[in-house]
């Protein structure tokens, strides 16, 4: 299940791409399939071991274009172990809301991205996330859980202050917000609840089959209750490019 829209965030074969906070690797796998050279980065060694195994399986299955490469790197987002200007593209999906010092992590993303390179950031949307926090304390107090709820305006302002130019946004996973509200209401660890199980089966069916009905429903729901907001950024070549780029965007992109 991808959150980043690769039509808005196009990749070229040979691009060097960092998936920062890759988790189980869903975006890293898609980047690899598209012929880029991907680095899947995370703090969790066990998850990275599974991601590495999947990279190998994809290569054996012939899913990877010739010339693409993939590797995993373990480390801390506050001190990325890469030289300045290392990557053409960076994805940071559902990770910044876990990091207490998010501004330091953003500064590191700017440092390792090449001038002119693009960044895709996804975080939980404010309204769906606020409802989850209200329904369940366990949802946001578990170790390693979410430490803040972003508005899009706050996320954009922080990354602009870091030095990025904002390029646009969209919402995703409108069908998933009600599932998490159910989970929070019945207990986030209550996997046996029949309502939660039934809704989860619907989501799996949607992910596997992508029927027209659910695609249309999600298109309607995304702007209202999309579980994630996705914002795209560029690292400018210089300060004048930052000002010119943001001025043009702010005239056409209403705040949420």
UniProtKB/TrEMBL annotation:
Pfam families: Methyltransf_11. This is Class I SAM-dependent methyltransferase. Keywords: Methyltransferase, Transferase. SUPFAM superfamilies: S-adenosyl-L-methionine-dependent methyltransferases. The keyword ATP-binding does not apply. One of its GO terms (molecular function) is methyltransferase activity. Residues 18-120 form the Methyltransferase type domain. GO terms for biological process: methylation. It comes from the Bacteria. InterPro entries: Erg6_SMT_methyltransf, Methyltransf_11, SAM-dependent_MTases_sf.
